[in-house]
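Lab notebook page, bench 4
Experiment: in silico fold of construct C2
Operator: M.H.
Input chain length: 501 residues
Purpose: comparison with the prior construct
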Amino acid sequence: MTGKTAPPATDPAPAAQKKEPVPTPKEEPAPAPAAEEPPSPEHPPATEQPTAPADEPAPVPTAEATPAPEEGPLAPPAEPQAPAPEPKPEKPKAEPPSSPLSLAVEEVSENSVTLTWKAPEQTGQSGMDGYVVEICKDGSTDWTVVNEEPFLSTRYTIQDLSSGDKIHVRVKAVSASGASVPATLAQPVLIREILQLPRIRMPRHLRQTYVRRVGDAVNMMIPFQGKPQPEVIWTKGDQPLDTSHINIRNTEKDTIFYIREAQRSDSGKYELTVRINGAEDKATLDIRVIEPPGPPQNLKLVDVWGFNVALEWTPPVDNGNSEIKGYTVQKSDKKSGKWFTALERCTRTSCTISDLIIGNTYSFRVFAENACGLSEKAAVTSGVAHIKKTKTAYQPEKIPQRDMMEPPKFTQPLTDRTTTRGYSTHLFCCVRGFPQPKIIWMKNQMEIREDPKYIAMIEQGVCSLEIRKPSPFDGGIYTCKAVNPLGEASVDCKLDVKVPQ
């Protein structure tokens, strides 16, 4: 009803004044869409309409009615006062989430394609509602949303596709603040059944850094699988390879990477991609081409004292593209002029060379070493070290004489034993003394003399008596006596010989 009352309010205005009909219709549509508050201006003209017929003979009130709409647009100054400062701090909070990561094709069939991706790094303070998947046929620009509502899973299967079509796919992260920049597959996906997904079977020795020397050949064969035959792509730093220097040969089951003579510039990370209809597998191959390092720098002869020399140096400028394992220090005396290795695999940049010959003059040089070997050149000291003669008098050390004489003493006694008839047994004890004591074995206080049944031995103070195939008659008390000029000592034990039943 308010829309019908508005036109008659504008009709009397041109009738009353012919000078102002043009600005009034132009000013009224402008504030209406900007303010978007139709009810507020409609009520004032509704109250003015009854006054208009009462004031028809007098043009003055109609003139007062025309400035009334001019006062209406004065409302905007009140609007920026309250809402203007509030949206500014809300802008950082209302940022949409970032783009999803690592969008890839997991599986392709005759009428579907399965996608996987990773969650975005930033989801915003309002949180993420889910993901939206869109597709577009190759050659078209019309993107169609596949899922009706956002979902939180990072895996999705697009169904009901036509076999043989090529489609572009992209995924957006959606939140209350809006949608993210879409993550789009680099290549369109051909909808046809993949009998075997592409997979790179990287050999074990290529999973680590592949090291070769400058000038060596690089020849690597990397097998893969996939049906139909996959597309093989080699890149280095996201750039295609220089085929004039690097040779690539692909077959149905493997790819061969070959460089006739490797250079330092060939070092780096190479990326192998095996792709079938958008489904792909990637592998990274790290190649390092090394060479001998340069010579150490700033070799100095720091100090010379006695038979010793102290040296210092700094690492080489060029390490040969390999970690420095150590340094080799060599010395040369002025008389012979030959170089001899004084120190190998020194891990520090300083060392002390000792055991130099008095009266000789020495020069020193240092090689750097890495996985490729020693440096071709060495750093040589600018000066020489002269080992001066010093007057020294030899004073032999006085060692006090000690009386080593000692009477016999058993350090390990005999122990009682039980054996079975017919099984040989041994008796052991330990004795010390100086001079070496004489050992006498006795059975039941009767000395055992030359009897083939008994074998007595002594070695390094360990006394042993072997009783060969004893019988019950051989049981009894056995004694070991040690005698020397300073005294004697003895130990006893009991031997039981059992008869098996």
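Observations: The two ends are 130 Å apart (CA to CA). The mean pLDDT is 81.
Next step: discuss at group meeting.
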